[in-house]
């Protein structure tokens, strides 16, 4: 379980290029799996499907995860279904952006 925690901490170091909040608290990570060999699978999205920085963000996520000690490899699957919306954001992200916390 600590490897998953370390991966989440690494993901919190990757920021959306347009919003000053990390991708994990933005709710852009839909799925995170670590297999027995320490290969990581991440299903993620972006705040907008036409983001011009998509390749950069995916590369940043892959690099951040593969830099975690113990991780063998990372596969990043970029999806747009379901579509991201602010309901996926953490309370901390909502507060950071000055949005209403429901």
From TrEMBL:
Gene3D superfamilies: Fe-S cluster assembly (FSCA). Pfam families: FeS_assembly_P. Residues 5-75 form the MIP18 family-like domain. InterPro entries: Fe-S_Maturation_MIP18, FSCA_dom_sf, MIP18-like. Transmembrane segments: none annotated. It comes from the Bacteria. This is DUF59 domain-containing protein. It comes from Candidatus Cryptobacteroides faecigallinarum.
